[in-house]
Specification:
The protein is built from nine helices and eight strands. The longest helix has 21 residues.
Length: 242
């Protein structure tokens, strides 16, 4: 038998934490084991270590686990550098206005990272929260950024899609054919008029009908404009990556 290494233990812990990337706020031990491919006993040991380290916590009154305060404390300093105190109020105001969760994504190293999601007063649902990270070409928020940025599209098909985004002012895609989840995104521009991020929303087509899109997109654009003005000189060159 090959002895377990320290790096293997770290990789397994990372795999358990990565199970929460898809927007799930609560997962049971069985689900974590199934998603990581690890035995339940191994998953249990890892989860307990993460609970002791405050990376995860037990859901009160239930059998599930959720992201713990330790991870949030690690995330706060980078979010503060991104100007969360400036743009979070605008995201919450947008979420309350359209009664949908609103998210902010930033472009980094060929990806779009969803750094913050504001839920509406009604609470919204997990299906309204985008993935934590996606390739910039594959993300609706990424295409909202690329359409107005300096990078050249990597394919004719992408070039045609970005031209459509530029003409109508927002990006849109159906994320799941079975549930017909529609995702929308508008760019957030820096002081140099280059896009460094995007505001995005997503919901089922029963909520985001064509008529609703006509109301939601202008509200998103107004929020994106306010965020762009209020974030103090967030350098586009640092954040934008085509």
């Amino acid at each position: 038998m090959t002895p377990r290494s320290g790096s293997q233990a770290v990789e397994r812990a990372i795999a358990v934490l990565a199970c929460f990337d898809g927007g799930d706020t609560e997962l049971g031990l069985g689900s974590l084991a199934a998603r990581t491919g690890l035995p339940v006993s191994t998953t249990h040991r890892i989860v307990q270590a993460l609970v002791r380290g405050r990376m995860l916590e037990r859901v009160p009154g239930g059998d599930g686990y959720r992201v713990g305060p330790g991870l949030f404390s690690l995330a706060v300093p980078p979010l503060m550098r991104l100007g969360v105190e400036h743009w979070a109020p605008d995201l919450y105001a947008l979420a309350a206005d359209i009664d949908l969760a609103a998210s902010l994504g930033v472009a980094r190293s060929g990806e779009v990272l969803s750094v913050f999601s504001a839920r509406p007063p009604s609470g919204g649902c997990d299906g309204q929260i985008p993935p934590a990270g996606e390739g910039i070409d594959d993300s609706v928020m990424g295409r909202a950024i690329l359409a107005f940025g300096p990078a050249r599209p990597r394919s004719p098909a992408l070039a045609a899609e970005l031209e459509l985004v530029r003409r109508r002012g927002y990006a849109a895609e159906v994320r799941n054919e079975r549930s017909s989840v529609l995702a929308l995104a508008v760019p957030v521009f820096g002081s140099d008029r280059r896009p460094w991020g995007a505001v995005g929303v997503q919901a089922g087509r029963r909520r985001l009908t064509d008529r609703a899109v006509g109301d939601v997109v202008p509200a998103m654009q107004r929020a994106a404009a306010r965020i762009g003005r209020r974030v103090p000189r967030l350098a586009s060159a640092e954040n934008y990556s085509g």
